[in-house]
Automatic annotation (TrEMBL), chains A, B, C, D, E, F:
InterPro entries: AhpD-like, AhpD_core, CMD-like. This is Carboxymuconolactone decarboxylase family protein. Pfam families: CMD. Residues 49-126 form the Carboxymuconolactone decarboxylase-like domain. It comes from Dongia rigui. It comes from the Bacteria.
Length: 136, 136, 136, 136, 136, 136
């Protein structure tokens, strides 16, 4: 159902540049599972590398925001953008990183409340309070 | 610039039902500041109450997700929905709850990376991996 | 602040094809006011005519949905799409067609509730009930 | 395919708080049918109650906007937000409330025309006419 | 799965007004294939005609932007709007007009990079540089 | 009005890592002008470098899609995402790369028509034609 052919993993890995990225995904995630987005990018090793490098740097490297929070933020953006695949894959990732059912429920409450007030503010065209402005 | 008249706080508080909500906002937030969205809702005490009750329950009550993370999720949704006022007000709220410049930068990196892969997945129409399906 | 020059009405009407559309807008709306979107389209009489013909046919011709309801639907779409100009112009049009403050408040309640459940359904990825399917 | 387990209605109703809401849905709608979104919310009686209370207050209580118009507004928002489930469920609801094929066709014409002019206005970045400003 | 019945082509063409549009689609595209959107519009010959007239004028008439570029722009909008059907149909159309795999890969790189910077700019609420303003 | 302080160019360039990127922007674009998005990213040289590297690779390197077409695709995505700053900056870039008024008008016609049919298809929930499926 994709708009381009998704090669099998074996077929994709015949290209050494693709195999190198897939191997790094496996090593970083400590899992043999390569999900479909990476098959979709197999035809373009340059774009594959660029996307993976960013995912690795932003999502898989210890930093000032903890790994589970990062996944919940990712789910939030993906929901608002209506990306079904992304919502599914990052919800699975959040669960793998320890998201409890209670946290998932709260996440849905926050996301949907934001959806509500976003629409409300836009419908009313509320002007910015000077208190929120950041002076440069 | 709003699509309806925004009364001044003093004018709005002539309605006791509005004043009661504003007083609860002040007490909950430990601040005298009432921002513009609440002025926009002054004409409808029922809707005002409904929105505030939810904000209070979801965002201002201790729970399984910490207050700063909640604000970062709110910013994520508001950004994807293009709600300028919401991005501003919740960034201010996140800062008030301790968000550092480093965390803000990371938040922008995560949100924008999600925007990138959301578009990529949608352009390629990547099919769902069976591994991500939740069995009912 | 537009991405193209907006000629004054007088300047735009030097083109007879533009003047003919503007005159039809005035006659249909029984008003001399030509708002900015029509100035933006003055450089392309073909596109100007195409857009106006549709607005006239869909929004200004008696049909199975009453004029005020049409404007409220237009506001709903424009809000969800985050089009500030469109929210403003169609709210003004709805008021001109009789929208009361009470109806405006309800409209905001409906739009924002839809925003909330839209996000909730997408975050949960709720599957379609067979009962909602239309058989072909 | 949901991101969380959807319990059967019978399983969900073992929780009295869930059963109470479901019973109110049935009584309000005069129908035994409980659609999937309510199964998705069964794990969180608080969120379930909050969402249903709003749907009941906004959509199922006589007010200044008639029930069919409310559903058409809901469809409009859901379409612009790309929520497939929501478009389906509210189109079914609109039909149940009397929407004719002619009205459905008109609704699609309005929604899609709004989509067109929303994009046009955003591409041109049309500035707001002072005539549309509401003075506070 | 549509929200309205999709008649078969044969059934739809019993209406001469529908048949006339379908025949023009076939002649313009030099193909017998009528895709599903046109079946969906069969119940409203007026809307069917209006949509086809625009597709023909904008997409199928020689002009200042070449046919393949037009399709790539269409894919870009459809991706950002999350319209799965539209992404599929216009990707097929782009391929039929000569889009190579390399161009498709680049298109995905551009669309997803735009998605990234769009989110980044909105999260930061970058103010417009005076240099980008068009003077009227 | 940004959500973070935008340093002046001079202030930003005190950081050698930032200056190196700004110098590369100037050299690549053969212009001294550094627009506001790059000031917004000055606080995070890593993210600044990551975004610029991609813009340079995707938008400023000769490839299978010509430079003007790339900018028009960028405008299309930015319009659908409602990013006002992005629409302005990439329209300016497109003009600098030779976009004529006629092409700009056509671009608006294509973008807005896509917006129309995207909404129409989503409102009707048109199922995918098997002919559009890509076999893997």
């Amino acid at each position: 159902m994709a708009t381009l052919k998704l090669p099998s993993i074996a077929e994709a890995e015949k290209n050494p540049a693709v195999k190198a990225v897939y191997d790094d995904i496996r090593a970083t995630r400590k899992s043999d599972f390569i999900n479909n987005i990476w098959r979709g990018l197999a035809g373009s090793p340059v774009l594959l590398q660029r996307i993976w490098d960013q995912i690795k740097a932003v999502m898989a490297t210890p930093s000032a925001i903890d790994p589970l929070t990062k996944e919940m933020i990712y789910i939030a953006v993906s929901t608002a953008n209506g990306c079904s695949y992304c919502v599914h894959s990052h919800t699975a990732a959040a669960r793998a990183k320890g998201m409890t059912d209670e946290q998932h429920t709260e996440l849905m409450a926050i996301i949907s409340l934001a959806g509500q007030t976003n629409h409300l503010v836009t419908a009313m065209q509320i002007p910015l309070d000077p208190e929120f402005e950041v002076k440069s």
